[in-house]
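Sequence design from tokenized structure. All designs in this work follow the same two-part layout: the structure record, then the generated sequence. An example of the structure record is given first.
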């Protein structure tokens, strides 16, 4: 069975940007693309004429977007459903290989489809979810990964390495060394603590690089360790990178920053495509996660 990209379509400019990103990806991966439109009017309270017009308009929009994608030789299917768009996208993530939504650069999805609730999609999606802003993607290079040592962090690392190899671009590992100042701490104790943290960081990066290059021998890598918040480094990377990869917001790591805050801050300020990789065990009901 061919892998499938599901992209949320609402007729907006950001959703077209998301579709274009899907097309570029499918041209190299051979994945099929499903265009999903979710009509969220309270149709049960509307007249038959209103319902008919709303569904016709959605179908026409899907037909037009499907024609646009097929012009690039992409295998495309369409699906029109009714209900809450957030719930519909979460449900679609159960069978998709990657879910894609378009956003404003400021982080809010265009139109009626999701509104400010989209950050929750990063936590609820059962497959990797890509947030694609309405910005130019020309001349972007490199894949950046926010590193942590959780199982999901390692899963995200493999996803990022696969993407970098597919694109023929360098993978950059981003990691933050937390900077804590305790007035009660002596200079000696603080120095010893910082040396331990630096050693842990080097070990984490070294182990990540070793596992990634074993699996992807042709991969070109680089690592950046910063004392800035990791979200700031990832946001900066999103301005020029082809892709930034983050771990699921509920992935806990003993080394690195809080994943939930990282995902929240990056998505609200992203400057380019960002993928959030879910937990490996995130396959139950949303309430179970």
């Amino acid at each position: 069975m061919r892998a499938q990209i599901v992209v949320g379509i609402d007729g907006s400019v950001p959703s077209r940007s998301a579709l274009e990103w899907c097309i570029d990806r499918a041209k190299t991966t051979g994945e099929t693309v499903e265009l999903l439109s979710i009509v969220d009017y309270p149709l049960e309270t509307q007249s038959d004429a209103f319902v008919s017009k709303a569904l016709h308009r959605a179908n026409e929009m899907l037909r037009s977007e499907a024609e646009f994608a097929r012009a690039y030789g992409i295998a495309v299917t369409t699906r029109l459903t009714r209900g809450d768009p957030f719930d519909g996208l979460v449900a679609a993530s159960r069978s998709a290989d990657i879910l894609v939504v378009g956003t404003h650069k400021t982080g809010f999805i265009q139109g009626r489809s999701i509104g400010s609730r989209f950050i929750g999609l990063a936590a609820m999606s059962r497959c990797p979810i890509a947030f694609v802003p309405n910005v130019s993607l020309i001349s972007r290079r490199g894949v950046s990964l926010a590193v942590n040592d959780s199982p999901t962090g390692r899963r995200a690392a493999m996803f990022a390495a696969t993407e970098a190899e597919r694109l023929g671009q360098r993978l950059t590992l981003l990691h933050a060394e937390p900077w804590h100042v305790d007035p009660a701490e002596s200079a000696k104790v603080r120095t010893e603590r910082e040396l331990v943290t630096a050693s842990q960081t080097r070990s984490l990066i070294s182990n990540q690089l070793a596992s990634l290059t074993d699996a992807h021998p042709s991969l070109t890598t680089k690592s950046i360790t910063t004392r800035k918040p990791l979200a700031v480094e990832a946001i900066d990377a999103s301005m020029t990178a082809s892709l930034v990869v983050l771990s699921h917001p509920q992935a806990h790591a003993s080394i690195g920053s809080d994943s939930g805050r990282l995902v929240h801050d990056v998505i609200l300020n992203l400057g380019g495509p960002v993928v959030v990789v879910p937990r490996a065990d995130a396959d139950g009901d949303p309430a179970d996660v």
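The CA atoms of residues 52 and 232 lie 47 Å apart. We note this feature because it recurs in several other targets discussed in the main text.
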